[in-house]
Amino acid sequence: MPRYYNLTITAPGGSQPFRQWTTNPQASGVGAPSSPNTQQTVYDPAALNVIFDLIIQAADQPSGYQNITVEGVPLSDLQQAIGWTGYQVELQAGMTAGPPLANPQQRGTILKGQIYQAFGNWVGTDMTLDLVISGTAFTLDSPGNFNFNRQPGQPLAEAIQSTLNTAMSGVTQNVSISSQLVVQRTEPGTYGSLTEFATMIRETTKGVLGSTYPGVTVALQSGQLYVFDGTTPAQNSMQFAFTDFVGQPTWINQNLMQVTTVLRGDLQIGGSVKMPQGLQDAPGIVTTTAASMPSSLKYQSAFQGAFTIQGIRHVGNLRAPDAREWVSIFNCFPTTPTS
């Protein structure tokens, strides 16, 4: 089976996972050290089934906590799970080497956070472990210190970085926004969570550089912060291949495209993607004419150009036979540089 996952749980302050479930022990460093992207993998046919539906989007549009279900865990883990609150969780997923279209270079970390709640269920012969995962530790009872103090003439990117350095120290930042976002007045403010801070940033920047300007988005993905607006070259840029797609891309809203691919962890929110040109005249692909059936349009994307990823949804069920149960769904808007 080319599907791959590696789920680890680490105690606070620990350096080594104390629980690990994976499909490919060698690829995950269990039993033999190797790179996360190595093609020398050993598939474990007895790997436990994992089920997840993870949504990654702007912090000002919170989707709630993430959930991962592991089936077939031992009774001892179900009894201990209640004490795992605050433990760190990381989920890597994607594909391993195997069929021609499986690309192990596309797998990566799709979720990183801490356990908000863990509980086990035992119904009949089925034992499941559910992990409810939060990206940050901020709550209403324990707010953060998002102290925003933007000075006249100071670029917005610099002010955002200063705020995040204080509130979320040690978290990697990826900031790619327009240099034109500068005001000639002081803009102070204090916020208790990333959601509150991101909402303020979006509301004060939307439409500033034109009626179609989406504003600045702040998002947390896999333990890293991404700040973007689609106007500057993204730090993460990727070329889609036509064989990556599960069905054709489609419009779902004004200036918002949705594309479904095989599950992959190498793309980040705010990153830039380029649509494929097609497969005509490629080795091994049958070329057709406009008058023949099937149409040659089936071998090229209905969309062209560059897009910026606005949101990501990872859907996984390891044992499900349907290809649509191991996919990544990306919502993207056209990249239109303004600076």
Give a description of the structure:
The chain is mainly β and 339 residues long. The protein has 3 domains: 3-51 and 62-134, no CATH class; 148-228; 237-334, Elongation Factor Tu (Ef-tu), domain 3 (Beta Barrel). It is built from 3 helices and 18 strands. It has helices spanning 75-80, 156-167, 194-205; strands spanning 3-10, 19-22, 50-56, 66-71, 88-95, 108-123, 126-134, 146-150, 173-176, 187-191, 217-221, 224-228, 237-239, 250-253, 256-262, 272-274, 306-317, 326-334. The strands form 3 sheets. Strands 1, 2, 3, 4, 5, 6, 7, 13, 14, 15, 16, 17 and 18 form a 13-stranded mixed sheet that branches. Strands 9-12-11 form a 3-stranded mixed sheet. The longest helix is centred in the middle third of the chain and has 12 residues, at 156-167. The chain is globular and about 65 Å long. 33% of the residues are buried.
